[in-house]
Amino acid sequence: MKVLVLNGPNLARLDLRDSAIYGQMNFQKLSEYISDSASELGIEVDIRQSDDEVQIIHWLHEAADLKLPVILNPAAFTHYSYAIRDAAEMLTAPLIEVHLSNPMAREEFRHTSVISGVAKGTIAGFGPDSYRLALIALAQLLGNIVS
Ligand code: DQA
Fold first, then answer.
1. Half-sphere exposure of 42 toward its Cβ, with a 13 Å CA cutoff?
2. 82 is annotated as an active-site residue
3. Does the beta carbon of 101 sit less than 6 angstroms from any atom of ligand 1?
4. CA atoms within 13 A on the CB side of 130
5. 83 lines ligand 1 (CB under 6 A)
6. Cβ(110) – ligand 1 distance below 6 Å
7. Which ligand 1 atom is at minimum distance from the Cα of 17?
8. Among 61, 99, 111, 131, the one annotated catalytic
9. Which end of the chain is less enclosed by CB atoms within 10 A, N or C?
């Protein structure tokens, strides 16, 4: 099973963001953690990051065309990108929305996700384990049961 793991703006600069919120891992370490978790589950991951809304939309189109499941951390786009939502709605395999932090426990503008309504589910607040939990959920959803 192959999964696209898409990451939105500013996530490549995690090491420069508030470590009390985002932890200590830089994006490279986070990517390694996701890859290692995926290998344990027998999942192949393609991990990408962009600060560009258009790029993320094109990757969602690609996932829809190839019928690939997607784990998406839309970052700040979570809260206002109807264009990413519309692209996500066209996916043909499950979408799981993830966040490192718990947006519901943060500023009010983060309490809205325009993506959640088109996701199978959302996992937030567990740091890098949000991605690991999303991989486990996908493995179970798609019948690739963890032994
Ligand atoms: C985030 C939460 C968003 O509110 C924020 O804009 C981010 C990261 C998270 O992973 O916790 O950039 O998606």
1. 9
2. no
3. yes
4. 24
5. no
6. yes
7. 12
8. 99
9. C
Give the neighbor-by-neighbor strand order of the sheet with 95-99. Answer: 44-49, 2-7, 70-73, 95-99, 121-124
116: its two tokens: 């959640």
Q: Tens place of pLDDT for every residue, the chain, 147 residues?
A: 899 999 999 999 999 999 999 999 999 999 999 999 999 999 999 999 999 999 999 999 999 999 999 999 999 999 999 999 999 999 999 999 999 999 999 999 999 999 999 999 999 999 999 999 999 999 999 986 544
Distance (Å) from CA 131 to ligand 1 centroid: 13
Q: Does domain 2-141 have CATH number 3.40.50.9100?
A: yes
**71's tokens:** 């784990």
Q: Helix (H, G, I), strand (E, B), or coil: what is residue 66?
A: helix
Domain ranges of the chain: 2-141
Q: Residue ranges of the alpha helices (H) in 1-147?
A: 19-22, 27-40, 53-66, 82-89, 129-141
Residue pair 101/125 in contact (Cβ under 8 Å)? The answer is yes
Determine the length of the chain.
147
Instruction: Find out whether the beta carbon of 132 lies less than 6 Å from any atom of ligand 1.
Output: no
Residue 99 bears catalytic tag: yes
